């Protein structure tokens, strides 16, 4: 056996080991993803998918995640779609109108308190409560955005998988 053949055999064995490790890792990730979809609570589910599909990663990272989604069973995809659509419906889009109403309400309360030295405590209380409401509304808006794009992603993966099966 020549030197080239020995090197080729060695490289082939290393490649087989790498593929075997990748398959094991892929299987673990697939089981983890199924567990996430079936068992995590809504907030934990959103946090997981926000972390996994966060912008700014390498192209291969996203490809691996989409392939992982594509390898899910149809039942799991349907459950994920149902779950994300329920979350999307529970985060009502009418709440975005409150973003315009809250500052108007704050202006009304400012005029009502007439902002003089005796009523600063009431003004501060109103300001803090308005800021808290705005923060909560912004958090809901961000959750709705994550829910929307994950719902769309799962629908696309399911449609593609059904198309490939035909």
From TrEMBL:
Sorted UniProt keywords: Coiled coil, Membrane, Transmembrane, Transmembrane helix
Transmembrane portions of the chain: 97-114, 120-137
Coiled-coil region list: 11-43
Name of the protein described by the UniProt record: Uncharacterized protein
